């Protein structure tokens, strides 16, 4: 399968870049968070609140498995925590080319300060949370990806160019 899969921390630009990439590659776009919200008919925040994070993580694994049913290839943006499960990383590698959009904690904080839609960043010290999570998750994302694209300070056009180079290799 030749899906193009974008992974990375919350706010790294997976959905913005993913939509532009889908246009460029003439491949449809999907986003695992949106698929889950549509299936559950509620928001990610509500799912975390009423069912808990583990239930959400199980929904993510089911969602990735369902992507194998697609008859054509997609540009797929996956939720930031999805690649943390080893099972999911294996599934993503089988689905296609995995690209990690790597961003510095400062970039993420600037983009996400005040955001209310990410349950893991609510409460005290979102900046510290971002720093700690990126430190822990960075190596896992790197391990899961075939290519890493640094996004800090780059325009969408520059990021797209690098992704297209990696995809066409
Ligand atoms: C999460 C990232 C979110 C969403 C949920 C948990 C995470 O997706 O799946 O809030 O654990 O990093 P985005 O990366 O699209 O924000």
Helix percentage = 55-70%
Instruction: Give the strand order of the largest sheet, numbering strands 1, 2, ... along the chain.
Output: 2-3-1-4-5
- Sketch the major β-sheet: 5 strands, parallel
- H/E topology pattern: EHEHHHEHEHHEH
**What class do helices, strands and sheet pairing give?**
alpha/beta
Report strand %: 5-15%
Low-confidence stretches: none
Backbone CA Rg: 15 Å
How many β-strand runs?
5
Q: If you average the pLDDT, what whole number results?
A: 97
User: So how many helices?
Assistant: 8
Which small molecules are bound?
shikimate-3-phosphate
Tell me about this structure.
There is one protein chain. Helix content is 56%, strand content 13%. With 169 residues, it is of the alpha/beta class. A five-stranded parallel sheet has the order 2-3-1-4-5, with helices on both faces. Helix 3 (44-51) packs across helix 4 (53-67) and helix 6 packs across helix 7. The longest helix has 19 residues, at 126-144. It is globular. The protein binds shikimate-3-phosphate.
